[in-house]
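Quick one:
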Amino acid sequence: MKRLTRRLLLAIPVIAILIVLAVTVGTFVPRPLFAPDPPVAGENTRRILVLSNPIHTDLVIPLDAETRASYSFLDSSGIPVADPAAEWLVIGWGGRSFYLETPTWADLKPMPAFRALTIDSSVMHVDVAGGIDDTHPAVQAFDLDADQFQAMSDFIRASFVEVDNKVVPIPGAGYGVYDRFFEAHGSFNALVGCNTWTARALRAAGLRTGLWNPLPQLLALSLRLFN
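Output:
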């Protein structure tokens, strides 16, 4: 028993060092390794945003005539993309249990937290917003050319589960009047979670992230370093 305890005590600093190493490499090694060509500025350039809170990131897409048409498939589910007051479309991916059952920290329960740390099915969350200050510390802004923006949009659309070419809303699921949850592809866990999904979408758009960014703070840092 004493020998086992001693081994466990010796393993703790080794595990801590491995975690620090993984986080360091994941943040400071870029993905892709070499920088792609910068976007070509033009009339079709769009500014997208990345919104961060302490545990989660969302992608934010400007709503103009073209994007309102592209995302009109959300209208029938109650997302008012055609409303002139809606200036931005806010999209995130996450674990089903934690996402649906934890609208605020006050709503945190043991089971959703446990599933978020182990494995869970996934959902998409979609909302609309009015004006957003892109100089706010929790916001990062990036300009994409038409091809980059389309590649990111294709990635987002492919994340939705579709039946008969229609996305699948989750009945009664939402935090407010205009947001909705939808069935999504992929499994969620603490290592491959919402922030790694955001990073994948940004890489599809030609941006560079860290090799592995499980936390918003690490993703934000890598985006500042490599773009």
